[in-house]
């Protein structure tokens, strides 16, 4: 297989037009924000692979896949990688000594091990040092006249030709069973997933300059977990059929290795800085900051507490983690984990004669969400804009038992100048993803017009979500090293309704 991606783009823009008449809207008539730029990219992937499968008497199963991938995103020394995988299975229910067990229809044990390569999160030019220029940053008046600027260049990107493939190593062992005339289906799987050579931008010190850091293989991550699925289907009488399927997934993950200091930070927000720390022995994408103990109630509360910058009544009081009597950066700790204790799903399907009803529910339990929107919605020291109605119950000398900080015009260390646990919320939720009601028209009524089957249906999605999270949507997206943060992304929980028909001619 050979893949080549390439493209070029050109763009121009301007604003503040004298007229919005369509005939007048050309770029040169704009008077503000006049911009133009273009871009180009190219990258390629070349792979060779082979696969062999073996099946003996539908009892002993085996398979092996070997592939070698090469990507232009990596330097010449790390461009290629080999990724094998294999699986084995034993359908024990087909053995002779199992034939007398009438209630067992199928039982298969299985195991697999594989390595997959990833080239995501890396620029095609990562192996090369890049230079660029702009009027503001690199054009110089060498001759001393404002009309004689000369074009110059500066380093925009640091290179790392030794970056290589990120390896996802997955192993699992489990079994699948069908019981009681295939009415009950049950499966259980234990898995382990390790990520070696995680691709991530290299953290650089401030004195390294303004050039963007290269992506490097920065550490190893491990996930260990279990999947369980149980299904039951049956008939009641001649016309009523139903099936219920439930599954649960639980996993624990941790950072196994980080070169150098043993940690690196991510998830930078311009007001509070880095919000995520990946550290050896802790879960991936853990939130790192100060543990809030609530608000200073009054001046006496401030005086009795450890020394803290900008401490005042109505502001946040932080925990003295190291016990030295003062709140310093050493008192930062892990204040939240976006990884759930478990996720689960329930599928229900019912049918009665020509009618059918189905629904899908999905939930996540025990995960934390970092609601970064509160930095703007609960404090006036950031952007001016819509504020939370929570501020109606803000701290005042007369309302000093409130957990909402006092309203003030500036941020500080004791309000929204650093990350603390006020921004961490329980992200657990249960959502009905979809529900559908259908009716299948009697086939005899349709044959005369050339239709063999007609099903009419009405369907709704995201009909309800049960959660304590105060944001718009507890189901967030993110990368493998930066997730569980609500950046204000467009919610995915809006209700939708559909009317439709399925026709077979």
Question: Tags for this entry?
Answer:
mainly beta, single chain, 505 residues, 27 strands, 4-stranded antiparallel sheet, 14-stranded antiparallel sheet, 3 helices
Layout of SSEs?
Elements lengths: L1 E14 L16 E25 L3 E12 L8 E12 L12 E15 L11 E3 L2 H4 L15 E4 L8 E14 L4 E13 L2 E3 L13 E3 L2 E17 L3 E18 L5 E7 L3 E7 L6 E4 L2 E4 L3 H6 L11 E3 L14 E4 L5 E11 L2 E11 L2 E4 L2 H4 L46 E3 L2 E12 L12 E15 L17 E2 L9 E9 L1
Describe the protein in words.
This protein has 505 residues and is mainly β. Helix content is 3%, strand content 49%. It contains three helices and 27 strands. The strands form six sheets. Strands 1-2-3-4-5-8-9-12-13-20-21-24-25-27 form a 14-stranded antiparallel sheet, with no helix packed on it. The chain has a four-stranded antiparallel sheet with strand order 14-15-16-19, with no helix packed on it. It has a three-stranded mixed sheet with strand order 23-22-26, with no helix packed on it. It is globular. The model has no long low-confidence stretch (mean pLDDT 93).
């Amino acid at each position: 297989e050979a893949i080549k991606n390439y493209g070029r783009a050109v763009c121009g823009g301007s604003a503040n037009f004298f007229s919005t008449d369509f005939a007048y809207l050309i770029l040169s008539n704009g008077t503000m924000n006049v911009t133009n730029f273009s871009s180009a990219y190219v990258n390629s992937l070349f792979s060779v692979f082979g696969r062999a499968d073996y099946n003996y008497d539908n009892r002993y199963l085996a398979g092996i896949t070997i592939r070698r991938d090469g990507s232009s995103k990596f330097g010449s020394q790390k461009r290629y990688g080999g990724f094998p995988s294999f699986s084995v299975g034993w359908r024990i229910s087909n053995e002779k000594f199992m034939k007398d067990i009438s209630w067992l229809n199928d039982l298969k044990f299985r195991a697999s091990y594989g390595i997959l390569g990833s080239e995501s999160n890396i620029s095609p030019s990562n192996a090369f040092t890049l230079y660029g220029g702009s009027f503001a940053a690199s054009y110089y008046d060498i001759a001393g006249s404002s009309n004689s600027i000369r074009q110059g260049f500066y380093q925009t990107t640091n290179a790392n030709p030794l970056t290589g493939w990120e390896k996802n190593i997955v192993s699992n062992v489990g079994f699948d069973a069908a019981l009681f005339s295939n009415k009950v289906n049950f499966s259980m799987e234990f898995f382990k997933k390790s990520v070696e050579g995680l691709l991530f931008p290299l953290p650089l010190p401030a004195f390294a300059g303004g050039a963007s850091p290269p992506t490097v293989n920065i550490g190893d991550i491990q996930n260990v977990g279990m999947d369980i699925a149980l299904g039951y289907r049956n008939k009641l009488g001649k016309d009523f059929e139903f099936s219920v399927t439930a599954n649960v997934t639980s996993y624990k993950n941790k950072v196994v290795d980080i070169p150098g200091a043993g940690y690196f930070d991510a998830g930078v927000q311009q007001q509070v800085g880095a919000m995520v720390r990946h550290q050896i022995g802790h879960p991936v994408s853990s939130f790192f900051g100060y543990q809030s103990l609530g608000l200073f109630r009054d001046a006496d509360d401030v005086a009795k507490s450890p020394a803290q910058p900008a401490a005042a009544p109505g502001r946040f009081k932080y925990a003295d983690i190291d016990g030295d009597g003062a709140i310093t950066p050493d008192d930062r700790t892990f204040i939240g984990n976006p990884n759930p204790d478990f996720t689960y799903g329930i599928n229900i399907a019912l049918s009665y004669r020509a009618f059918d009803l189905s629904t899908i529910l999905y939930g996540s339990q025990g995960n934390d969400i970092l609601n970064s929107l509160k930095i703007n919605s609960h404090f006036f020291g950031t952007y001016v804009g819509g504020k939370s109605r929570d501020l109606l119950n803000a701290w005042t000398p007369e309302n000093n038992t409130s957990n909402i900080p006092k309203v003030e015009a500036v941020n500080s260390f004791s309000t929204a100048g650093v990350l603390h646990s006020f921004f961490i919320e329980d992200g657990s939720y249960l959502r009905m993803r979809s529900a559908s009601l259908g009716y299948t028209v009697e086939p005899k009524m349709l044959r005369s017009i050339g239709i063999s089957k007609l099903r009419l249906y009405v369907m709704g999605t995201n009909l309800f979500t049960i959660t304590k999270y105060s944001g718009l949507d507890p189901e967030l997206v993110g990368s493998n090293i930066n997730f569980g943060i609500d950046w204000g992304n467009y919610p995915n929980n809006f209700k939708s309704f559909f009317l439709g028909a399925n026709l077979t001619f």
